[in-house]
Amino acid sequence: MMRIVIAAACVLVATTGCSQQPATPAPAVEAAATPNYDTSMSVDELMIHAMEPAAYEFWGGWGVVVDNDGPHDLRPTTEERWKQVENGAATVLQMTNVLQLPGYARSPQADWNRYAQGVAKLAAEGKAAAERKDYDGIGKVGEQLDAACDACHEKFPPLAPAAP
Ligand code: HEC
Questions:
Q1: pLDDT of amino acid 34
Q2: Separation of 44 CA from ligand 1 center, angstroms?
Q3: How far apart are CA 10 and CA 17, in angstroms?
Q4: Cis omega (within 30 of 0) on the bond before 108?
Q5: Is the CB–ligand 1 distance for residue 58 below 6 Å?
Q6: Ligand 1: does its nearest atom lie under 6 Å from the Cβ of 31?
Q7: Distance CA 37, CA 45 (A)
Q8: CA-based torsion, 116, 142, 43, 108: positive or negative
Q9: Residues 100-154: pLDDT tens digits?
Q10: pLDDT tens digit string along 32-61?
């Protein structure tokens, strides 16, 4: 469906270009092609709204939680649950790319990037483990991931106290 719409738009642009003006690329098109990273969201918000929920989606596939109804085994038993665990790892991995963007990376940048890449490596392993439905694998990676997140937090403490 989307492909048809795009094709139609191209025909329209081509027609307009032919009938009204020489084939000079419109400046608006060039501007849109330049990457424009929106880094206005703070690292704090990025962690709260993206990194942490994604990590919990991944961690949510391993272990046992106890509530008023008793213990619940978190081991995924359906395709959908395994996919959710994999989604979490995939998003954590992508968030490590975001963290290394100019505008987010903090100084000393070499350390910052190294911690982000440490998390990326584990997230990739976690994603692969979820893909092959390796319960022990996601458990092992999950533990290491927790330590990798904390390693960056120890080196780079919050700029301002967290909101209450
Ligand atoms: C490259 C460094 C880095 C990595 C890797 C990293 N974080 Fe963070 N995180 C930070 C920084 C810096 C802050 C403090 C935010 C600030 O300074 O405003 C933070 C803050 C947080 C907070 C606290 C937000 C609040 O205000 O309550 C949470 C939760 C969090 N990170 C989760 C995670 C998780 C989960 C991971 C791993 C999956 C992770 N982070 C990996 C740098 C990192």
A1: 87
A2: 7
A3: 10
A4: yes
A5: no
A6: no
A7: 16
A8: negative
A9: 999 999 999 999 999 999 999 999 999 999 999 999 999 999 999 999 999 999 9
A10: 688 899 999 999 999 999 999 999 999 999
Least Cα distance to 44 among 164, 146, 120, 158 occurs for 158
For residue 95 and ligand 1, the question of a CB distance below 6 A is answered with no
b/e code 132-157 from CB counts within 10 Å (16+ = b): ebbbebbbbbbeebeebbeebeeeee
Residue 30 has pLDDT above 90, yes or no: no
What's the confidence (pLDDT) of residue 2? Answer: 45
> Which amino acid residue places its CA nearest to atom 13 of ligand 1?
158
Amino acid at 90: A
Atom of ligand 1 nearest to the CA of 96: 5
Q: Please choose from 149, 150, 154, 155 the residue to mutate so as to test ligand 1's pocket, defined by most ligand atoms within 8 A of CB.
A: 149
Side chain identity, residue 96: T
Q: Is the beta carbon of 158 within 6 A of some atom in ligand 1?
A: yes
